Amino acid sequence: MCDIISFDEARRILQERPAWFLARPEPYNPAPKRPGQCPICGYPQGTPGFLVADVPVGHPLFGVLIRCPACWNGYLPEYLRKISGLSPTMLNWRLENIVAEDGLQEATRAAWQFIKRPVGWLTLWGSFGTGKTFILACIINALRDRQIAGMYIVAPEFLDRLRATYEPDTPIGFNKLFAQVRDIPVLALDELGQVQATDWANDKLFQLLDYRYRHRLGTVIALHFDPAGKAVPPQFPLRFQAILSRIKEFPVVELSGGDVRGLLRQEAHND
Ligand SMILES: [Zn+2]
User: Fold this and answer.
1) By three-state DSSP, how is residue 269 classified?
2) Neighbours of 243 (CB within 10 A)
3) How far is the CA of 181 from the centre of ligand 1 (A)?
4) 41 and 105 share a domain?
5) How close is the Cα of 52 to the center of ligand 1, in Å?
């Protein structure tokens, strides 16, 4: 017989240790959560699930079942906001705000298609200021409405954070940070082409994207060049070519509308 306690009680016992120290119960299965599963505990939506704390034998929380805060306490909207990686302004960006003059019609259609069935990849490409970031954030926001967890990351910043986990005394280790991004049901990956193409960076990005490709996890990628064109920046080595060939198996949409700063201003104004 296991003890069952609330999430708040577990948090009190864990003190400063954040929620990601909690893993789903036996058998511990780090498999990615799917749309239709609670993004925190992994139980099917509608079945209130439990978590266990990732603690050593002898710890007061060892072997204790913790009520999932999303399933039991309505914490899901807050969790989806926190995990989204979006700034307060970006959390308000909505596909519904796009009008014809913005020149984003094709991208908007592709985004709605993806939101309807957020598996596999979608790639948006266009030069700077064409609205790629805007569409990525809108997709994550529309998925939040459907209780699906999505995360927006800027590829070079994510690699910096990953690298920083090698420093001593970092609050989150490499494996946990990497798994958090690798396993998120939907990942919006901005500025993939702007990564400093070191061997290490290429390795990590390849691992991340290869995993998401093999599991058909929803992944939206923004690039500043045409992945099908000959103009692939020469600094990208072979592993990046492997990513590009996978990108081309899924929809690729060009954003050619030009400047969307008006749209962003209007949105920021509505805050
Ligand atoms: Zn849950």
Assistant:
1) helix
2) 19
3) 18
4) no
5) 12
Taking the centre of ligand 1 as the mean of its atom positions, its distance from the CA of residue 58, in whole angstroms, is 25
Residue 51 CA to ligand 1 centre (angstroms): 8
- 36 is in which domain, residue-wise? 4-75
Whether residue 109 sits in one domain with residue 9: no
State pTM to two decimals. 0.84
Does one domain contain both 179 and 228? yes
Q: Can you say how many angstroms the Cα of residue 122 is from the centroid of all Cα atoms in its chain? A: 14
Q: Are 216 and 120 in contact (CB under 8 A)?
A: yes
The domain boundary residue, chosen from 32, 51, 75? 75
Say how far apart CA 6 and CA 257 lie, in whole Å.
50
Is 168 in the same domain as 225? Answer: yes
The answer to whether residues 144 and 190 belong to one domain is yes
Measured in angstroms, how far is the CA atom of residue 39 from the centroid of ligand 1? 7
Average pLDDT of span 58-64: 86
- Which residues, at least 6 apart from 25, have a Cβ–Cβ distance to it below 8 Å? 50, 51, 52, 65
- pLDDT digits 0-9 by tens, 141-169: 999 999 899 999 999 999 999 988 888 77
Tell whether 58 and 124 lie within a shared domain: no
**Total structural domains in the chain?**
2
Residue 85 has pLDDT above 80, yes or no: yes
Distance 145 CA to ligand 1 centre (A): 16
Q: For residues 40 and 69, is the Cβ–Cβ distance under 8 A?
A: yes
Dist. CA 31 → ligand 1 center (Å): 15
Domain boundary among 54, 75, 96: 75
